[in-house]
Amino acid sequence: MKFGVVVFPGSNCDQDLVDAISVGMGQECIKLWHKDHDLQGCDFILLPGGFSYGDYLRSGAISRFSPIMQEVVQHANKGGYVMGICNGFQILTEAGLLPGALLRNANQKFICDNVYIKPATTNLLPTRLLDMDKAYKIPVAHGEGRYHADKETLKRLEDNEQIMFKYSSNVADTHEIYNINGSLLNIAGVSNEQKNVFGMMPHPERAVDPELGNTDGRAIFESILNLVNA
Fold first, then answer.
1. Is 94 tagged catalytic?
2. CATH code of the region 2-228
3. Which residue of 109, 113, 173, 215 sits 20 to 30 Å from the alpha carbon of 230, by its own alpha carbon?
């Protein structure tokens, strides 16, 4: 399994992802420049967090037109795996690879904190090995993470088990905030209908190395690797 991390102008979590995949998970991982037209044989494409093109229009709205996104869209349409984290999630919604949109946080503030999420299903690649009763502590850092979609789309997401994660309380702390940004249905991540494209706002790559004091993110990558490499 060869992973590729797309780097856009303004990406600032690309190296975090490369380190998490290559050092933390022991997998081959390379960087792909946004002007490239070649995915270099990568099987799994990752779009990292950051502020691509400065987020001067809408988050992800300009990156959606980067040359490499033509290749990413084709890769996804052929059934290839793609996952966007934070700004990467925003890019995937702008590109039409994922349903819905990410709006300004309900409190109109940038949120940088550890939050808790729970898998909403175990029928998606990143969640298949996860415990649906466990609250996973994963960092967030975003100003536009409020998931929004119309009622029909939300119903399809629920009926088709496309909701990947929901914001949750820490089961050990009843005072933990359940919904940190106002997302509808507490949604923290979704998949496409074909279930090969995934997006999530929290940063699992920041919870892989034990030196960071939290390894809950490893379970998400382990779930991907266990089933993809099987």
1. no
2. 3.40.50.880
3. 215
